[in-house]
Amino acid sequence: MSLSLAVNAQVFINEVVSSNASVYADEDGDYSDWIELYNSSGSVVNLNGFGLSDDTAELFKWVFPNIEIEANGFLIVFASNKNRVSPDNPLHTNFKISSSGEDIILTKPNSVIEDSVNVAALPADVSYGRQPDGSSSFYFFVQPTPLNSNSTAGYLSIASDAAYSQPSGFYNSSVTIELSTNDPNELIYFTVDGTVPTENSELYQSPISFDSTTVIRARTFAAGKIDGKVITNSYLINEPSVLPVISLSTNPENLWSDSAGIYILGPNADTSDYPYWGANFWEDWERPAHIEFFDDQQNLGFSIDAGIKIFGSWSRIYPQKSVSVFARGMYGSIEIDYNIFPDKNIDKFQSFIMRNSGQDWGRTFFRDALIHSFAEGADVDVQAYRPVLAYFNGKPMGIFNLREKMNEHYIESNHGISADEIDMIERDTTLLHGDFDHYNSLVHFLETHQLQVQANYDSIKKMIDINSFIDYLIIRYFSATSDWPWNNVKIWRPQTESGKWRWLLYDTDYGFHGG
Fold first, then answer.
1. Which residue of 9, 13, 29, 144 has the fewest CB atoms within a 10 Å radius of its CB?
2. Other CB atoms within 10 Å distance of the CB of residue 29
3. Secondary structure of 343-382 in HEC code, one letter for each residue
4. CA dihedral sign, ordered 477, 479, 483, 489
């Protein structure tokens, strides 16, 4: 996205990316939204005190530190909501750019608005900017150019979304779907096997009829326009279910091919060495997919492009594998705006798990969820649970357990503390967030002090949430989890002077002598 921001007609917001995928990562490795400023003058410009905002009622929502843009130079500000203002490190605003589009405003220290621009909804990997740099002409770019001149091919518009005559959902008989577009010069191509439509896919020319569960993916193309968004609809025909349903669609190669399929052994698996090290499903591969969720009343809850990974440890060897689902800007949405778990008052999620019940697979399929239910009301962090029936590219894949993912997003959703403000450790060896400093101090204190001494115990209570720890131990011992405590231990604390360690309950499939 490009804004004309002028400091004495010298500096411009030159290019903006919302929901960007793979063009420019921040220092954390995240692909955040970003805004590029360009200094068209022959002298340095200082931005100290300038405001950057997406809200006309709050022009100084984020304020620049004492930082300069070199003559004829560029500056990137990540619109990541991480709020970092050190001039010696990458800059991050305290807001993100809405995927549906919004105003971006640059304001001088004296409250005079230098420039603003309304950014349209931007597909992943597409930027909006000026060409030539600093001019009044705006274009869409399929090849963004952070910290460089906007020299790639620019487009004036994006092809419209393909429209369906019938919505996604459940049907009791055959269905006929008509596809349409706003522009008669746009062509629609579609697929029914999960692949992303290209101009080599089937051209839509007449209504599509079918009498079994089918997933249609459609996309518009037109000369002189950026390709339209892939629109995916699932039609579940004669598929009665009292459970919620997830329809996952993706290029079949993402699941089943030897070279890229995350769901199979692949060519490098050592089939003589259980659990088949070297298999594709042991790789940390993420693949794009579309997820549609229907509640137990068959209403569409959400429909989102997302990333998927195989999740879990040795449970990966089972035919039905757990899958992590991630909302990311690179796919178009940074979060799922839906209350996935009605038992919790949380309506925004960055990730969740479609779990195969871990080592309880092939037995009850709910042992872990049952044990977590015993901890409800206790002072311990537990995962919500909701069983669903899943389809991959229209094919039934059995029952999965929807679970919260116990990562930094869980802490933010359940405790209101961001990932930048926590320490999180797995077992006592793996740092997930923050640092080991406080944990090492805790361990050192325990190794060098007798807790029978009241003063020492009082000191430990300032480091550990004792009530949470006690409740955690009770549920672990009660459930007789046989692969604990040497495994499946995860703890976290707020990075504050009074922040105390808490324990996360997860992976209790070996409870009650399971396995």
1. 29
2. 6
3. CCCCCCECEEEEECCHHHCCCCCCHHHHHHHHCCCCCCEC
4. negative
- Pairwise CA distance, residues 309 & 91, whole Å: 30
Q: Could you say which DSSP state residue 228 is in? A: P
- Count CB-CB contacts under 10 A for residue 6: 16
What share of the chain has pLDDT > 90, as a percent? 76
Residue 244 token pair: 């919620």
Rounded to an integer, what distance in angstroms lies between the CA atom of residue 218 and that of residue 210?
A: 16
Q: How many residues does the chain have?
A: 515
> Strand, helix or coil at 5?
coil
Task: Give the helix/strand (H/E) hosting 260.
Answer: none
Q: Rounded to whole angstroms, how far apart are CA atoms 322 and 318? A: 9
Strands, sheet with 187-191, edge to edge from the N-terminal-most edge strand? 169-171, 231-237, 214-221, 187-191, 202-203
In sequence order, the β-bridge partners of residue 287 are 308
**Residue 414 vs residues 30, 220, 315, 336: alpha-carbon distances, Å:** 22, 40, 27, 15
pLDDT higher than threshold 90 for residue 2 = no
SS3 316: helix
User: For residue 207, is the peptide bond before it cis, meaning its omega torsion is within 30 degrees of 0?
Assistant: no
Q: Is the peptide bond before 240 cis (omega within 30 degrees of 0)?
A: no
Say whether pLDDT at 47 is over 70: yes
- Helix (H) and strand (E) counts in the chain: 6, 33
Angle, CA of 200, 201 and 207, to the nearest 5°: 140
Give the per-residue pLDDT at 7: 34
What is the DSSP pairing of strand 154-155 with strand 138-141?
antiparallel
Please determine, for residue 10, whether its predicted confidence score (pLDDT) is greater than 80.
no
State pLDDT tens for residues 255-285: 999 999 999 999 999 999 889 999 999 999 9
Amino acid of residue 237? I
Q: 416-432 pLDDT, tens per residue?
A: 998 889 999 998 889 99
In 3D, which of 223, 410, 241, 392 has the Cα closest to residue 310? 392
Cα–Cα distance measured from residue 281 to residue 265, given in angstroms and rounded to the nearest whole number: 6
Cα separation, 490 vs 431, in Å, equals: 10
Average pLDDT, the chain: 92
E strands in 198-331: 202-203, 208-210, 214-221, 231-237, 245-249, 287-294, 300-311, 322-326
Residue with tokens 């007609």: 9
d(CA 353, CA 333): 17
Per-residue confidence band for 151, with pLDDT thresholds at 50, 70 and 90: very high
d(CA 92, CA 123): 21
**Total Cβ atoms within 10 A of residue 426:** 16
Instruction: Round to whole Å and give the CA distance between 504 and 491.
Output: 6
Indicate the helix (H) or strand (E) that contains 53: strand 51-53
Separation CA 197–CA 186 (nearest Å): 14
207: how many CB neighbours lie within 10 A of its CB? 11
